[in-house]
Predict the 3D structure of the following.
Amino acid sequence: MLVSLRRVIRAIDLHSKQLSKETGLTAPQMIVLQEIGAHDGVMVKDLAKLINLSSATVTSILDRLEARGYAVRLRSNHDKRKVDLHLTPEGRAAIKDAPTPLQSHFIRRFEALQEWEQTQLLSTMQRIAEMMDASEIDAAPVLDVGTLAQHSWAENSSR
């Protein structure tokens, strides 16, 4: 079991290093860029919800992306209280040429599993986190398995 966990950790680490080497960006930075590209004009709080990170974390990532010229924050023309996020041409080029994020690959494979398999895997991973005294550790997911598995887990937990 521990060897398998080390392999998962190593796979994530290797993919992150490859992404950084090829693009100069971290996985969370790439995810933020991709979501801004998919939802042009999105606000920070909405972006944070989309990728399951806190607004403070997204703001920190945006600070770095903006400093590098990949994204811009523009005050809304319709409501001056709102700040919209947009990609720059450099940001669009970065996501166009980027390798597929590990989470996208994982999610495609996870969603191809039958619902009972998804539920079983989620339950097992949650049990492992408990066994490692990690169930209370704040770890906003970069790898998000979607609402189907979360819904299934909630149903099974209440039984």
